[in-house]
Please model this.
Amino acid sequence: MIPGRLLAATLALLLASCGSDASEPSAAASVEGFPAFYEITGRDGELEGWLFGTVHALPPNVEWRSQRLDAAIDQADLLLVEVADLSDSEGMARIFRSMAFDDVPASSIQARIGSSARAELDLLLAESGIPPGQLDRMESWAAALTLAQQVSTGEPRYGADRALISEFAGRTVVEFEGVRGQLSLFDSLPETEQVDLLEAVIAEASGHEDRASEMTVAWKTGDLPALEKASGEGLLADPELRAALLTSRNEAWMSRLLPLLERNERPLIAVGAAHLLGEDGLPALLAREGYTVRRVQ
Model:
């Protein structure tokens, strides 16, 4: 069983297609500082591009833009993101529905989870207004994401990646995965891991607001030690989930990113902040390939 308090907040640092439409104020709006931002240079010392770690769902009024990031937006030849069409909420919902109901376990949602989580699930369903039995018709991963929306404190419309995509209107925007690709990460998980996700969301129903706000503040101020510590807990402490949702994706992205950096076009790479952390993060992987990745203060 995965500790659940970090799940919704961690998803906002990982996956662009899993945001919520709930809104809560955040202390991050009044905190000074800027998120971590990197320059990528090649072996010849020439600037090849930029890396920026995003949060996919944010409260309103969080100021996260810096002059150096704005300059990179102006200078970049293209934007590289996880999902390019984040404004198409109806299309995203359609894809979710097409995948959420096609291989549903025969047991009810209550029967899939441990007995200790069942009372908490009943309470969460009552508070969220989700009709009894609605989750029974879903695969376990889809039920988990549906519940995660109820405990998220950010809004996708204020997410950093969506703002950057709008800045590149009329210019090239390339996506690593797309909505279907991201949801397939969950859809392909074994049922045991899907149930871990589900139980993690249920456990997060108590006290999630404060923890999510702390992580938003850490991102906003560029507090990488705090973010890296959080990325080793909760959802990403499970080795199988960490591989599926983080490390394997970073490795797959590198196969697309390296040829792009070798061309004359300079990309701004904007992906969930969790993908930039630690020895498995994109800066570390790029460094192993001979690039210099320098954090811009």
Summary: The two ends are 39 Å apart (CA to CA).
